[in-house]
Amino acid sequence: MDWGELERIMSGIYAGKTGRPSYPLLTLLRASLLGIWYRLSDVELAQTLFRDLLFRKFCHLELGGDVPDATTIGRFRAKLIEHDLWEVLLGEVNRQLEAKHIIMTEGRINIIDATPVEAAQSGPGKDVDGQPKRDPEAGWPPSQPLLCNGLPGNGQGRQPRHPKIHLWLFNPHRRG
User: pTM (2 decimals)?
Assistant: First the structure.
């Protein structure tokens, strides 16, 4: 994206020299775009900006810093609409994305629960019934990464067209 062009379009909307310093225009625009792409209300967007590191990074917000609240986001959009810039900016964003052959679809937020849980003991020997104590599904990660697609298939035998990623399995309990 040519963020400089988008910033140029918005350059005249904040001229006030009094009051608290405002968030950078591009930060608010980036946040607004995430709200559109992920179908988030202003309140949901503010909450997501607070907790989601990828959203913060995209909007150039500091990890320990403040994030725009719902009112700030809504006022920013209203200011753009008041100056007839909202549709112009969205049109420019779409034009730039189309020029790079990027198709934006509805975003998706995936939250993965990686909480360690107690599992069956995996080790040598036999239990009271003479059965092996070792869980057949338990084991150590391979020494080589698994090559897999970036997103799961669609269930129809076709794989999505996404770059391949390397996935390393990690066992936090492994010693050595």
Answer: 0.59
